[in-house]
Hints:
mainly alpha
Amino acid sequence: MAKREKKYCIWCGGETKNPPTLISKIPLIDLMEEHIDTFGRERILDDYYEGEIQAPPQIRAELYAYLDLLNDVKDRIICGSCLEEELKNNDKYYSPLIQDDEDLINFINGLVDKDDNNVGK
Ligand SMILES: [Zn+2]
């Protein structure tokens, strides 16, 4: 009588049937993305990957923490609505990375279309 283990979205905690997906530890945060724009997106991201962000101390620490979490990408459970929201924000702040990858787009659409309300039925 093995029950199927319930799965929960790592971001919102909602139940979902989605399989693990390669995703960051946290979603994109508008406030942080606006900070990045304020200091110059290209410069901040280049500096980050090269090891030293040039920004006032307080925001510098926040940017490191934020970007470290965003770059912590591995297989995680995420629900359809969080994924959908994330794809919108990704297009808003970053160039769409996956627009030419039909297989990946179909895979993501498959996840987003799943009905999370019927979990466990
Ligand atoms: Zn979620």
